[in-house]
Write a structure and sequence with these properties.
The chain contains four helices and nine strands. The protein has 174 residues and is an alpha+beta fold. The strands form three sheets. The chain has a three-stranded mixed β-sheet with strand order 1-2-9, with helices on one face. 21% of the residues are buried.
Length: 174
């Protein structure tokens, strides 16, 4: 009989990531979820954005971890054929008073290793016709992923079947 070392409560993005990491370390992990499927509570209500590291303090640990985590997540998605979209991030100034803040975001992003590209007013109108701006920056590499995708096996390793549904508890060791 297998042993249970740890119980993780919640089968959202964070709960499944923690459970997977613990299971990969050889622990017996039980994931408990109140809903009938993975990622249907808080994970389903987030913006689904994979942050690029634009907003965190320049050179901070949070920024470094964001940039590194994004790279690891893209690799993880690619290895498991998890659907995601690489969409852009448009930063704009609507008047002269916002130009210093826009420049600050641009510098911070560049320092954090995710430099944005400057846009002309014509570029902005082409990308977003309803937006009125006097200047803008774009970062082409943020992405989004839907954690409630129809592939719960994606959050586990490829050689291990995922539980068909929760709350039926399942024990797995990876």
């Amino acid at each position: 009989m297998e042993t249970l070392d740890i119980i993780v409560i919640g089968a959202g993005v964070v709960g499944l990531a923690v459970a997977r990491l613990l299971a990969l370390g050889g622990r017996g992990v039980l994931v408990l979820e109140a809903e009938a499927a993975f990622g249907t509570q808080t994970s389903a209500r987030n913006s689904e954005v994979i942050h690029a590291g634009l907003y965190y303090a320049a050179g901070s640990l949070k920024a470094a971890l964001c940039v590194r985590g994004k790279k690891l997540l893209y690799r993880y998605f690619a290895e498991r054929n998890i659907p995601h979209r690489r969409v852009g991030k448009l930063l704009i100034a609507t008047d002269e008073s916002e130009l210093p803040a826009l420049a600050s975001y641009g510098q911070r992003a560049a320092t954090n290793g995710v430099p944005p590209e400057p846009l002309t007013i014509a570029d902005i109108r082409r990308l977003e016709p309803a937006v009125r701006a006097i200047a803008g920056l774009i970062r082409n590499r943020p992405a989004s992923s839907k954690p409630t995708n129809p592939c719960p096996r994606c959050w586990l390793t490829p050689n291990r079947p995922a539980p068909r549904s929760l709350p039926t508890p399942r024990l797995w060791r990876e």
